[in-house]
Amino acid sequence: MNYREAYVVDILRDMISFNTVNEPGNEDLLAKYLGLELENLGFEIRIVPCGDYRSSIVAFKGNPNGIKLLFNGHLDVVATSNNWSSDPFTLTQAGDRLYGRGTADMKGGIASMIAAVKQLTDERFDYTQGQLILTFVADEELYNKGTHSVLELPEVKNADYAIIGEPTDLNICIGHRGTSRSVIRVNGRPCHSSKPELGLNAISIMSHVIQAIDRHNEELKTITHPVLPSPTIAVVMIEGGEKDNIIPGHCEIKFDRRTLPSDTKQSVQDEISTLLDSIRRHVKEFSYEIVPYIYLEAGEVSPDSLVVSKSMKAYEMVFGRGAVLRDFSATCEQSLFMNQGIDTLIFGPGHLNQAHVDDEYTTISQLNAAAEFYYAVIKEFLA
């Protein structure tokens, strides 16, 4: 393992040791740790709070009058179970694999970005042609408070191009589906469970809603996009009833509707309302309430954008073959940057299949390949 390879592993080891499970997040200490590391690499640092013990870090280096290239990653991770084979907050190596919560999603991507700028610092790269901006943010996994807060900084929202280091398995991804999540609540009429005919079973009513959503998911498969998969909808949580001897008087579900760029927040809400209204025709005393709680729109960047063409050139230099442009299957913050006029793509180490799972891992080889790619992209834009 050479010096750069050891450096990226050491940075990732330190990052994994910070428990930044969202909620509550507690990203503040990790942001400040990275701030010290980046200050040592010659960056100007800003810590941007977005809640109690929650902060993002923004780092600048180079000529602010030239091209502004932004790298983005998130500091928070999802919760862990008790089924891990090792401590999820201690980096564990087994051959090429590095296990720990956030290794793939996506502290590994941040480690590769920092390794790339460390190499440039060691080479005394002068950044005369432009500015590199690093935004490592809190709260990506839930409400995007970190990115919303850093985008209020003029230096960030005036960036020209951006790359998000989500786990793409070292593929250049030019778009992602969005997500629209809501609660649906239905009420019944409770009674003694020995006399169900006297009540109205809210769980039974909700079963019609679930079946309608499942049928609608099949219908959504007919909608296509040049790059992104078809939209989907799925019931992801259910809760109902009061006690095991009472006909349930309430039931609620949560659903996740994955969206395309043609969808809007209002169009999805109207779609679900129409779907539920159709149930009234065959379910007596049916009433419902929809409570949206998360919406992040889909994103896409033109294949003709400069960030794509320069990234494809860097990719060929690093990997010795042409890149195939792909979609990012999950939702990320590309759309937030695109809405600010910042052409943004997604590229990072690790496989999305390792995100949010027990024994999450990335590989040393992918971390180093991503660092080489980020290094080459910076030189393409700023040399």
Strands side by side in the biggest sheet? 1-2-6-3-7-15
Taken in chain order, the helices and strands follow as: HHEEEEEHEHHEEEHEEHEEHEHEEH
Number of domains: 2
Structural class: alpha/beta
Radius of gyration: 23 Å
Helical content band = 25-40%
CATH fold-level name of the largest domain: Aminopeptidase
CATH class assignment of the largest domain? Alpha Beta
* CATH homologous superfamily annotation of the largest domain: Zn peptidases
Number of helices: 10
The CATH architecture category of the largest domain equals 3-Layer(aba) Sandwich
Cα(first) to Cα(last) distance is: 28 Å
Quote the average pLDDT: 97
Quaternary organisation: single chain
**How does the overall form come out from the CA principal axes?**
elongated
Q: Quick one: biggest sheet?
A: 6 strands, mixed
In terms of DSSP E residues, the strand content is: 25-35%
